[in-house]
Specification:
Layout lengths: L3 E10 L2 E11 L4 E5 L6 H9 L6 E6 L2 E2 L10 E4 L11 H11 L7 H11 L15 H13 L5 E5 L7 H18 L2 E6 L2 H7 L2 E6 L2 E6 L1 H6 L4 H6 L4 E11 L2 E6 L3 E6 L9 E6 L5 E3 L9 E12 L3 E8 L4 E7 L14 E6 L5 E4 L1
Parallel strand pairs: 3-8, 3-9, 6-7, 7-8
Antiparallel strand pairs: 1-2, 1-4, 4-5, 9-10, 11-12, 11-14, 12-13, 14-20, 15-19, 16-17, 16-19, 17-18
Helix pairs in contact: 2-3, 2-4, 3-4
Length: about 350
């Protein structure tokens, strides 16, 4: 049995349905992420797990117990907010001690638990400082220590890194991964940042319009999206739609307007004449000045219309004669005969049939 079970949960605000019949489960010790754009329902779902909001239908079960009648303070879950919500007039020690006071933990037992929580987040020696004396990353770690000090069954994190700069956010992502492994409790993490979700999570639930579009491990969410929305939302992706015009075993050809037939491998058996979409990641595309002798299953010629230098890679947007745009990546670290292109250059793009992913409909 899963540690946390969400069964058919729905939450409405007037005529607006924020969460629409969502069911999912979180295992003990799992780093589970709710990912989606603003307004998709992920924070509302988190609030219902925490007890700050109640579902209109469905149930939230922890270790098999329905939490419907337990207020937030009586639930064995704790929440870390984006704002951290630290008490400015209290020291780090006071902030971390506060949940222990509310739980009526005997005073003699508090110092050891506070010290252990601060050690978990690498803030030993910071106990006498006030929040205004801490960096953004340190404040975030105090908020996590305060949440962990009562040893909850589940830790809920609502975009806790969103307010930090890129470099610090990356450092704290690594710290969160290591911390989650050390404390061994389930984390339920809310974010709209796809890269963050892919880096941190054991599993991801991608939400859209109050529903879960796909729930899977990060590699499958990225490599095998089950809908056009997931493919488009997770990272950069070329999406080409059209009718299935040929099928040969596990290979189908889709007639893409302004591009022509594109071949792709699929395990499904789409009917001829049915609609389909090919999801193709830019890093899967080979770009060269001319057609290579070993050109794989798909190759198209075009003109570099735009490029974006991003340090480690350059993003090329290539326009074909039919007006389609294909986005491709070229690693700037490539040596030897690697050629880099300018706007207006003629190039050849190619990719094998199994590089893309077929999405029915």
């Amino acid at each position: 049995m899963a540690l946390l079970d969400i069964k058919g949960v729905t939450r409405r605000f007037g005529e607006f349905t924020a969460v629409d019949n969502v069911s999912l489960s979180v295992e003990a010790g799992e780093f589970f992420t709710l990912l989606g754009p603003s307004g998709c329902g992920k924070t509302t779902l988190l609030r219902m797990i925490a007890g700050f909001d109640l579902p209109d239908a469905g149930s939230v079960l922890l270790d098999g117990e329905d939490l419907a009648h337990r207020p937030p303070e009586a639930r064995p879950v704790r929440t870390v907010f984006q704002s951290y919500a630290l008490f400015p007039h209290m020291t780090v020690e006071g902030n971390v001690a506060f949940p222990l006071q509310m739980a009526k933990v005997p005073p003699r037992d508090r110092p050891q638990r506070i010290a252990a929580a601060l050690e978990d987040v690498r803030l030993t020696g910071y106990d006498k400082r006030f929040p205004h004396e801490l960096s953004g990353g340190q404040k975030q770690r105090v908020a996590v220590a305060r949440a962990l000090v009562t040893h909850p069954a589940v830790l809920l994190l609502d975009e806790p890194l969103a307010a930090l700069d890129a470099k610090l956010r990356e450092e704290l992502q690594i710290e969160l991964i290591n911390l989650q492994k050390e404390v061994g409790i389930a984390f339920v993490y809310v974010t709209h940042d796809q890269t963050e979700a892919l880096a941190l999570s054991h599993r991801i639930a991608v939400m859209n319009h109050g529903r879960v579009e796909q729930l899977d491990v990060p590699s499958r969410i990225y490599g095998f999206p089950n809908s056009r929305f997931v493919a488009d939302f997770i990272g950069q992706c070329n999406l080409y739609s059209g009718q299935v015009v040929a099928r040969d075993g596990t290979i189908v050809a889709i007639d893409v307007p302004s591009l022509g037939p594109v071949r792709v491998a699929t395990r499904s058996e789409p009917a001829l004449g049915s609609s389909g979409t090919i999801a193709l990641r830019p890093e899967q595309i080979r770009i060269a000045a001319g057609a290579p002798a070993d050109a794989p299953g798909n190759h198209y010629r075009g003109t570099v219309a735009d490029l974006l230098y991003m340090g480690d890679v350059t993003v090329y947007k290539v326009e074909t004669s039919g007006g389609s745009r294909i986005e491709a990546l070229l690693a700037n670290s490539q040596g030897g005969g690697a050629k880099f292109f300018e706007v207006g250059d003629q190039v050849e793009m190619s990719w094998p049939v199994d590089a893309g992913h077929f999405i029915a409909g």
